[in-house]
Write the structure tokens for this entry.
Amino acid sequence: MAIDNKSQEILRILEGEGRISNIDLAERVALSPSACLRRVQELERSGVITGYRAVVDRDKVGVGFVAYVAVGLSTHTKQSHQAFERAIALSPAVRECHNVAGSYEYLLRVEVADIPAYKVFHTDILGVVAQVNSITSFIVMGSPKDDRA
């Protein structure tokens, strides 16, 4: 599917306001409601839009501690990567897992209640994965910009 300027504008608005009504979206992008709805449906059908989700205030649900964790593996084989990814997929504390280039193999976004809960994750979850060779934690002290939906 070709993404023209109008569809890019629709995507930009939906990324920030996923619950906007079709009428309001159509008005903002200067399309008729029916033309706008057709474009959104085609973006969904073609897999450009893969879903919608709620943005949750983590503090209000008891998740007050966030860390980015750089993980180095002991071996650099496909099997080692797959085993690590399977192990990490089981942890609800890991909100994001990225395979990255550089000094580490993975960058995780970990969200837990507090420092004691992070210690449990660090020791009892990540620390027992056989493929892990190094763990470097970056504690989030604030997020002046966070555009993730």
